[in-house]
């Protein structure tokens, strides 16, 4: 029997608190000749596009930077950011659902984005989701809303 997936809808204060708990600083992103600092908790998903990475933020905005997804992955905390396959990394704070369909696992993010999980990475991704959820449940006093 599978363990239930608990999804959390975090308030902005909750996102900031989790960021402090996991020691998430701002990420400096190169953009058109200058650098832009962005709080990591605002990053919902990263999508690789060749030698570029498209950032999808929690406010719906996007930003393309001239670094590969592999380089960006090395700068992110592994307990919060999970690589689903060669083109996508998600922030587990925005995980809304995990769906199983004919041996294909798909995650659904808070903004409705659906991202498939590589078959080879499925076990690792599910372990990372469970570890993240255990860590969140261990935090007390968080402004969370849980649904099964």
UniProtKB/TrEMBL annotation:
Superkingdom to which the source organism belongs: Bacteria
PROSITE patterns: HTH_LYTTR (PS50930)
Family matches, as InterPro entries: LytR-like, LytTR_DNA-bd_dom
Domain called HTH LytTR-type: residue spans: 37-131
Gene3D superfamilies listed in its UniProt record: LytTr DNA-binding domain
PANTHER family cross-referenced by the UniProt entry: STAGE 0 SPORULATION PROTEIN A HOMOLOG, TRANSCRIPTIONAL REGULATOR-RELATED
Protein name, per record: HTH LytTR-type domain-containing protein
Species of the source: Nibrella saemangeumensis
